[in-house]
Amino acid sequence: MQEIVVPGEAEIEIRNSRFIGYLCKVTSRADAQAVLADIRARHPGARHVCWVLLAGGESGMNDDGEPAGTAARPIYLVLQHHALANVLAVVVRYFGGVRLGAGGLVRAYTQATVAALAQARLEAVRAQSTLRLRCPFALEDGLRRYCARAGGDVLAADYGEAVVLSVRVAADEVPRYRQDLPDAFAGAVEFVDSP
């Protein structure tokens, strides 16, 4: 899987119609709606604003009035072919007065998405794991700082007899955590039902 690191934008013209493609990283439908609202505001005269969102369980697509399967589906196929995740792809169309037919629309939306993708910068997504780390209350701040320096994201903290932090880390970093944490905290940090 890959994610967008630097957004892409490109414009193509086909038989007097302008197609402007945008690709950006988003992590939720709410993020995507904000980006869509901004794009719509920048293109008030556009005939169609077609989009595809790939963000886990919040994915979706919209042909925005184009014939079914001629806009969002070709955009989706480009994203799928490049194994993109957490991405919003938008293609804005200004109608040029010449009908393109279903095949022409499919090619146009595909080309606009590919052109925007060529301007974007991608990065491979690292597999993630969640570690649950138990420590005494007095070590919580130190453990949080350690995780931040090591590239971990604290997702949650549970307080009981001790603190249990749920920390998301790159899967390939788990062995390093398992090796370094006992020494860094003199054995006071324990792994709780973690990989």
UniProtKB/TrEMBL annotation:
InterPro entries documented for this protein? EFG_III/V, Impact, Impact_N, Impact_N_sf, Ribosomal_Su5_D2-typ_SF, UPF0029_Impact_C
Q: Name one GO biological process term.
A: regulation of translational initiation
Q: Which Pfam families match?
A: DUF1949, Impact_N
Boundaries of every UPF0029 domain copy: 133-187
- Record-level Gene Ontology MF annotations: guanyl ribonucleotide binding; ribonucleoside triphosphate phosphatase activity
Q: Which GO terms describe its cellular component?
A: cytoplasm
Residue intervals of the Impact N-terminal domain: 15-117
Protein family per UniProt:
Belongs to the IMPACT family.
Listed name of the protein: YigZ family protein
Please give the organism.
Crenobacter intestini
Its taxonomic path starts at: Bacteria, Pseudomonadati, Pseudomonadota, Betaproteobacteria, Neisseriales
